[in-house]
Structures are given as structure tokens and as C-alpha cells.
Design brief:
This protein is an alpha+beta fold and 125 residues long. The chain has one domain: Zincin-like. The protein is 46% helix and 13% strand. It has 6 helices and 3 strands, in the order H-H-E-H-E-E-H-H-H. A 3-stranded mixed sheet has the order 1-3-2. Helix 1 packs across helix 5. The longest helix is centred in the C-terminal third of the chain and has 19 residues. The N and C termini lie far apart (38 Å).
């Protein structure tokens, strides 16, 4: 898929979020990259570049205090090539982009992978 079309799907995923969440997104860059870097893969203990679909890097909102000012923006990277490799149709890719964007934004709001898995599996407590 052409990068422009992929980026539009990422923007659509962000736009589809409820306003109360979008309004809280501040000091964060959301970018599309082809692949994760070798240092990103290594730092997460992954085996290969296909395992990482998205990555949040920064200080979650729940850990920010008064000293959090003049900080560089947090960053969410959405990795185009692993997502494309993981999906067999454009519709599946669109859904996986939405899921990945929501997952990484949830990290920005302070949710860890265990809690996200619990939520995705129907546990809401």
C-alpha cells in the first residue's frame, strides 16, 4: 500500500476515537515508519521485526507531575510493513491499524499490556 493511503488510515483511526480522548492527546507525535529499528526490537526482547506493529515511547499521562514541562513530545510509531505482512486484505489491515493505534494510545494513558489484554478479552474491571 502506498504510504499516503496508509497514513490516511492511521489518521482515520485517530479521528474515530471519542472526543474526550482526542482532547487529552497533548505533546505527542504519531508517526508511520516502515519497520521498527533494531534497537526498538532488542529493547523489547522481540525476536524479529515482524512482531512489533506499534510502539509508544514516552512518559504516560498517569506518571506525569508538575516537573513535566518543556519535555520533548512522546512518540507513537505505527509500523507499516509488519502490519501489512500480518493482514490478508485491506479491510483486515484497516481494522488492525485501528486496533494498533488504540493500543498505543492506551499506553499513553498509562495502561500496560496486561490490562489491555484483560480489556480486549472482555474484562472491564
Amino acid at each position: 500500500m502506498r504510504r499516503e493511503k496508509f497514513e490516511k488510515l492511521v489518521l482515520d483511526a485517530i479521528s474515530s476515537m471519542p472526543d474526550e480522548f482526542k482532547e487529552l492527546l497533548e505533546n505527542i507525535d504519531i508517526v508511520v515508519e516502515d519497520w521498527p529499528s533494531s534497537s526498538q526490537i532488542k529493547s523489547l526482547g522481540l525476536k524479529n521485526k515482524y512482531e512489533l506493529l506499534g510502539l509508544y515511547e514516552g512518559i504516560p499521562r498517569t506518571r506525569r507531575d508538575r516537573s513535566y514541562n518543556l519535555a520533548l513530545p512522546d512518540k507513537i510509531s505505527i509500523f507499516q510493513k509488519p502490519l501489512e505482512a500480518d493482514c490478508s486484505s485491506e479491510q483486515e489491515l484497516k481494522q488492525e491499524i485501528i486496533r494498533t493505534v488504540k493500543h498505543e494510545i492506551a499506553h499513553y494513558f498509562g495502561l500496560d499490556d496486561d490490562r489491555l489484554e484483560e480489556i480486549e478479552n472482555g474484562g472491564d474491571t
